[in-house]
Amino acid sequence: MLNRASLFACDFAKVAYCPVKMRLVRTSVCLFVWGFICWGAQCTAVDGKYVPTWESLDSRPLPKWYDDAKVGIFIHWGVYAVPSYGSEWFWINWKGSNATEYVQFMNNNYKPGFTYQDFASDFTAELFNATEWADLFVRSGARYVVLTSKHHEGYTLWPSKHTFGWNSMDVGPHRDIVGELAGAVRATGQLTFGVYYSLFEWFNRLYTHDRDLAFLHREYVDGKVWPELKELINNYRPEVLWSDGDWEAPDGYWKAREFFTWLYNDSPVRDTIVTNDRWGMGTLCLHGDFHTCSDRYNPGVLQKHKWENAMTIDRKSWGHRANARLEDFVTTDELIGEIATTVSCGGNILINVGPTKAGTIDPIFAERLVDMGRWLKVNGDAIYKSQPWDYQNDTLTGSVWYTTAKGSSRRDSSFRTIYAIVLDYPYKTNSVRLGAFSNQVTKIVQITMLGFNTTLKWKPTDDGILVEFPSKNEIDRLKLHHAWTLKITLSSRWPLNG
């Protein structure tokens, strides 16, 4: 009998070579891999393990912690924080496309012959304090943190054994940024740690060589990507792996399915890690524990699969840029609106900040995060551990978005709790019309506002209900700002589909 190590995949349309009997077998598909068996489109996992097919990998249940968390912090930090101009794509804009704006910036501010690598020595991070960052993220109300361990420039924020001379230990701050932040984040007891990792690198010669050969060779993947990904997983044990930089090559080149199989079966974070959908052409919005589909993805309608809205407070850049203007930053009202609309439609939101080269987070980012935290402290019941309701957006008042408490939709529940997040204050009438309850008026037990202890007055109308807000003076006295959440309690036997 052949041992597991000797078994290998054979996946051909009509003729497959199956090593179990060492002979050709005519079948639709014959696939023997590491103790797994697949026939046709049906895959069976021996001992409950996943096999390297998208059908099998996509069947993995989403870890509960991620769906409950809802709100995360994204951090784009790297050598691009040194020029701090344009965006984190500075290098490729300057040397790849030779964009006039970037060429002129370099000519005006740096001596001839200055290279992008020369920026690294000024990436000092002398004011970086991982504990202070983690404390800010706790105050923001976020539940997880994702750090760019390596962006498209290839510079790693940990002492990678496979990126000699181009990592944060060898050049720049001479510190293990990933390790420090991972420790500080976990020490809070309130945050989960994750990493972003760019698969490709703009100017890595191994990668460009593979690309020149139409990705028929995998020197870059075998010698760089896989070793670094496993190094990150084994050494830092992130519970989010956020892949990017995949779009030039198919998932087969990146060996994505094989990597997922190891990640879900044998890695030290196999039970808790979540991954996104950026693992090669044809995977975006199709595969992975959660879908991102595009940057700043917010469809405004309920999605069938778990998804994430990765957005940035600076509208024009993910990395720090000194040339940003005040109007370039998302306002607190806009940020709260993104949270409400995202969570209502079943998504998580990942909110990005770009630190300075010294390792500080600009006050405007911190202010937005602290404002968000104050709002979540009052309205968090409508966000954390919530789930989408039958309606996402109200039928009469478009600025109202709904969520419901998990478990309250069970048929054996005595009550059902619906949250209506009102994004625009009704200054003219001090009341809000809700059409989603037009056929269920008799089921309403009471209506309150989060942060306000008194039951609100309401009445039925021809097309729904009219809810009276507390006085504006009282709302201002209680410092209820940005968005206002109505908690609507319904009696049991509420029809699940309205």
From TrEMBL:
Its EC number is 3.2.1.51. Residues 45-381 form the Glycoside hydrolase family 29 N-terminal domain. Residues 392-489 form the Alpha-L-fucosidase C-terminal domain. Pfam families: Alpha_L_fucos, Fucosidase_C. One of its GO terms (biological process) is fucose metabolic process. Coiled coil: none annotated. InterPro entries: FUC_metazoa-typ, Fucosidase_C, GH, Glyco_hydro_29, Glyco_hydro_29_N, Glyco_hydro_b. It is an enzyme of class 3 (hydrolase). It comes from the Eukaryota. PANTHER family: ALPHA-L-FUCOSIDASE, ALPHA-L-FUCOSIDASE-RELATED. Belongs to the glycosyl hydrolase 29 family. Alpha-L-fucosidase is responsible for hydrolyzing the alpha-1,6-linked fucose joined to the reducing-end N-acetylglucosamine of the carbohydrate moieties of glycoproteins. This is Putative alpha-L-fucosidase. It comes from Anopheles minimus. The lineage of its organism: Eukaryota, Metazoa, Ecdysozoa, Arthropoda, Hexapoda.
